[in-house]
């Protein structure tokens, strides 16, 4: 039974990871590339370089740059360039290449650039956030950031922002003012979207239960929810009575069930449910 759950968890993990890479590739090929939305990263760099190197397509440039980044990762990072990063970078590049071969585009899908920018940011932003929450990376400029972090005192986030801004600003000169303005708009919109999606996907619940029936509530958490909990004895400031305080972190659906079950077991219990945006450790995100 335990092996079955482990296999299911692995299948689910890789399925979600592949959905993230597919969303990222679709956003780049169908919306960013035809409209020249160079919103930073390797995809933005490949869009900028495409008219300057006409014998290579955007997807081919993307594959070459990502491959070069992975080589740099092996040279300078060694084990820091993980299998997940290699996998996501390769699959993302191959999916973009496959879209180019299977679905030929002669230009933007619509005559509404703002609408297309919205979908470009949504697909790439959500895709990147999903990959990040799986503990992986699509490679590219993330590898450059890791190299900078290892060998310099430059703040990684600031270095990436400067790099992406330079790539986006280049579209003013390579394409036109409209492409440049949309690229700059998309760059900053993407930053806010990715942060928001990452925080929402990674959000769990921190539940504090004050109860006299610690045994029954604790048994439900361990045997039904398959979670652990921490408990201690506290004293009420007004009544002076001692109570058991139980603390558990869990997913949002589990928190709802725990709240209902606790009230069923002990109607006089006191429950506090708080958001926990990031939890590192067994059963949650791997701290490594």
Write structural notes for this entry.
This protein has 288 residues and is of the alpha+beta class. The protein has 2 domains: 2-201, no CATH class; 204-276, Alpha-Beta Plaits. It is built from 10 helices and 4 strands, in the order H-H-H-H-H-H-H-H-E-H-E-E-H-E. The protein has helices spanning 2-35, 41-49, 58-77, 83-102, 113-133, 141-151, 156-174, 177-201, 214-223, 252-265; strands spanning 204-211, 230-235, 242-250, 270-276. It has a 4-stranded antiparallel sheet. The longest helix has 34 residues, at 2-35. The model has no long low-confidence stretch (mean pLDDT 82).
Integer count of domains:
2
Characterize the largest beta sheet: strand count, sense, and whether it forms a barrel.
4 strands, antiparallel
How big is the Rg?
Answer: 24 Å
Structural class: alpha+beta
Please write the string of helix (H) and strand (E) elements. Answer: HHHHHHHHEHEEHE
List low-confidence stretches: none
- Average pLDDT for all residues: 82
| Backbone shape | elongated
**Oligomer category:** single chain
Number of helices: 10
* Distance from first to last alpha carbon: 27 Å
Strand numbers in spatial order across the main sheet: 2-3-1-4
Number of strands: 4
- Beta-strand fraction estimate: 5-15%
Task: Spell out the blueprint of helices and strands.
Elements: H1 2-35, H2 41-49, H3 58-77, H4 83-102, H5 113-133, H6 141-151, H7 156-174, H8 177-201, E1 204-211, H9 214-223, E2 230-235, E3 242-250, H10 252-265, E4 270-276
Helix pairs in contact: 1-4, 1-5, 2-3, 2-7, 3-4, 3-6, 5-8, 6-7, 7-8, 9-10
């Amino acid at each position: 039974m335990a092996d079955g759950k482990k296999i299911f968890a692995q299948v689910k993990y890789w399925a979600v990871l592949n959905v993230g890479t597919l969303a990222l590739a679709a956003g780049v090929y169908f919306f960013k590339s035809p409209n020249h939305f160079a919103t930073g990263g390797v995809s933005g760099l490949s869009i900028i370089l495409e008219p300057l190197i006409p014998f290579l397509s955007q997807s081919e440039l993307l594959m070459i740059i990502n491959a070069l980044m992975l080589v740099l990762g092996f040279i300078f990072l060694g084990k820091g360039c993980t299998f997940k990063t290699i996998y996501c970078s390769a699959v993302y590049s191959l999916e973009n290449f496959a879209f180019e071969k299977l679905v030929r585009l002669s230009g933007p899908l619509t005559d509404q650039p703002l609408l297309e920018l919205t979908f470009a940011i949504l697909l790439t932003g959500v895709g990147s956030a999903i990959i990040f929450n799986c503990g992986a990376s699509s490679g590219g400029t993330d590898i450059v950031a890791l190299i900078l972090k290892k060998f310099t005192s430059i703040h990684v986030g600031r270095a990436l922002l400067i790099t992406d801004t330079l790539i986006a600003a280049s579209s003013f000169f390579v394409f036109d003012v409209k492409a440049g303005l949309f690229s700059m708009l998309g760059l900053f919109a993407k930053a806010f979207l990715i942060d928001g999606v990452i925080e929402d996907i990674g959000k769990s619940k921190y539940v504090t239960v004050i109860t006299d029936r610690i045994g029954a509530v604790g048994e439900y958490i361990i045997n039904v929810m398959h979670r652990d909990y921490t408990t201690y004895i506290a004293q009420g400031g007004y009544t002076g009575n001692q109570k058991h305080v139980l603390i558990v972190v869990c997913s949002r659906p589990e928190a709802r069930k725990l709240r209902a079950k606790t009230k069923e077991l002990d109607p006089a219990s006191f429950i506090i449910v708080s958001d926990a945006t990031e939890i590192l450790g067994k059963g949650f995100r791997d701290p490594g």
